[in-house]
Amino acid sequence: MSVRVKQQVKQHVKPPRAAWRVWGPLLVVLVASGVAAALWLRPGRSGTTAGGGSQVGGAAAASAPAPVIEPEAQVYAKYAGSESCKGCHARENEYWKKSHHGLAERPIKATMDKAAFEPPRSFKHGSQTTDVRIADSLYQVVTLALSGKKEPQTVQRVIGEDPLRQFLVPFPGGRMQVLEASYDPDRNEWFDVYGDEDRQPGEWGHWTGRGMTWNAMCANCHNTRLRKNYDEATDTYHTAMAQMSVSCESCHGPMKAHVDWQKRHNPGGKYTPPPPGTRPASGPGSASADPTIKRFSRDQVLDTCAQCHSRRGELTGDFVPGENYFDHHSLTIVDESDIFYPDGQVRDEDYEFTAFLGSRMYAGGVRCVDCHDPHSAKTILPGNLLCMRCHNGSFPNSPLIDPIAHTYHKPDSPGAQCVSCHMPITTYMQRHGRHDHGFTVPDPLMTKQLGIPNACNRCHTDKDVDWAVKATDEWYGSKMDRPSRKRTRTVAAARRGEDSAKAGLIGMLGDEKEYPYWRAVAAGLLTRWAGDPEAMVALMEGLKHPQPLVRANAAHALEGVTQRSPSIQMAIRKLLDDPSRNVRMTAAGILRETIDPESPVGREFEHFVNLNTDQPTGQLQKGLYELARQRPEEAIGHFKKALEWDPRSSAMRQQVAMIYSSIGRTKEAVEQLQEAIRLDPANTEYPYQLGLAYAESGDISQAIKALERAVKIDPRNARAWYNLGLARNSAQDPQGAVQAMEKAEAIDGGDPDIPYARATILLQQQKIPEAAAAAQKALQIRPDYRPAMQLLQSLQ
């Protein structure tokens, strides 16, 4: 293989899509960008910056605050507890204590739970049978345990209320584990939240595994001001909280100072809310005179709701109401994975915030409390009355809608309900139906073209997609061809890796002025094309956007080209002083090899890395950090622990293999990919990457076998065909090499690397006219493609 052709193997590797499960989006800042961008490369980083310094983060980050984690005694002394609120706020307390927030977590109680356990009963799920009973006054679930045998587990707490309740049992190391066995109080029925998946002991997602550890997965959002308090050295938890359940102070923040002030200035007083449309009183004892009261803006309220109603990674583990969401979390958004549908609809368990952030409602100024009572969490009006509060022309950003003419359904029918079409329900955990808060428009044409579900066919299950397409076209005509349809097609094309998506993404990043969320999506999806001059310019502009989500995703996309461009590296370094911690942590992850660990941003980053070491993904993340700090043996220990904690995850083995290969440990990389293939034989990425690993080690015959397996699984895998062509050429099979390249070109006609590589192979065979034609094809795709220019010049 010529040097130039061999370089093509390295340059054309596309990062695999992230495959993290719903509970672990912890690597969005570090792993998904860092390792994937360097997949199978040996980056050869020197540990110096473009300016020649060995470390960054000192002067550049001098004003960036390090995380201030107050001692628990000091923190919890500021909380008064919900009992102290009800004397003055009786009505709000009544709403709250019956709400899902008030019942988010509680001790098990005979008055509420006896009916679930008595009389004793059994239920079957998969190949297993679980029993429930009351024995010696203990509420027990007898189920498959770590021993591989059924054992009684004594329930201590309940999380959730309706439509399902889950149960917590104590485990060694300060853990509480969440049982799969759950109870539906409406049907008086037990079931498994995983249906018939038949999870087994030893799996990360079995109830005994870390994927069901309450301390890490549930506790923060089911309780008030919780500290996880994980000790990595002993692998134990010392979890603490201000109050069990989502209490008043979960949303209002610590209120002891308020309670004390009221006791002094308004003893025995009652708080009476002012009549609608009037200002609160300002005299002594009134709320407005209380200096301890903090008035949150509408966006601060949204951030408070979002910290639990979102799929996200933790940056600090210590959010306080009133603070910015993006100072504490990294949000999971539409990306190359199938977590969301390309139009933004929820697919996996994504909760509400992400979809809402990309909606017209959010762009129009709507916020949570416009629709939901903050104390009962229920909607403030029933049915269409809620929507028509604004869509009757009274709200400036809301289009006027005639509900009868708009729906084309009979009044009072399910199809005439606004939420049926614009907030379709997806059921999670077998029982919990949740409305999509993206407020999308049903588009059956996108179902036909891209497989995205639409509300019409969700309801009319007896009809096909063509029927729905015809109906919406007849009803709404050209209105169906809205800008969101173009956006959806662009996102779908980007997920397929089609180069035609690049221009559309650049347009989204520059044009989605009403929707910063979709600009962030475009930035993230441009990762594949970050080295392209146009994409690079657009992403550099994205680093200046006022929304931190856009800045973070633009930085994330540029990671793979940061080392090659001093100007990009300097721009990323400036982000170490960004006002948003989310952006600072993204930049710190990119510059992790050179960041000063004693700088404020360096301490922030170490806190973030250490916070998540109780999970396999966190161990992977810690290993990458140790690797960046030139501590390879410590890093390997973290990678091994990640595999030990999640041994049946093919995605975890793939990620570890990527890291091993990047540091030259090809043998271990091959072993991990072989195991990934055994665990998931239908995944085309694993044999594809195995082929690249074999090629890196010089074993071309095994590389060819692995790549041929990849294209057999997925004949549309252009990257596998491309690298198979290179491998065959190296094995002195030029005819087979050209055939593979032609397959790759037929699938991906927008990549100049492929015809150029074919040109070099033809040139080696002295097929000058064919080589020249292939080089010309590369230039047709990209007129400024220098390798093809140089090849043609050499033929003159």
Tally of helical runs: 37
Strand order of the largest sheet: 1-6-7-8
Largest sheet: 4 strands, antiparallel
Q: In which range does the helix fraction lie?
A: 40-55%
Low-pLDDT regions: 1-64, 277-285
Shape: globular
Number of strands: 18
Which structural class is indicated by helix and strand composition? Answer: alpha+beta
Strand content: 5-15%
The CA-CA distance between the termini, in Å, is: 24 Å
Q: Calculate Rg over CA atoms.
A: 28 Å
Structure, described:
This protein is of the alpha+beta class and 796 residues long. It has a domain at 82-250. Helices cover 44% and strands 9% of the residues. The protein is built from 37 helices and 18 strands. Strands 1-6-7-8 form a 4-stranded antiparallel beta sheet, with no helix packed on it. Helix 25 packs across helix 26 (600-611).
Could you name the key traits of this structure?
single chain, 796 residues, alpha+beta, four-stranded antiparallel sheet, 37 helices, disordered N terminus
Question: Could you give a quick summary of the protein structure above?
Answer:
With 796 residues, the protein is of the alpha+beta class. The protein is built from 37 helices and 18 strands.
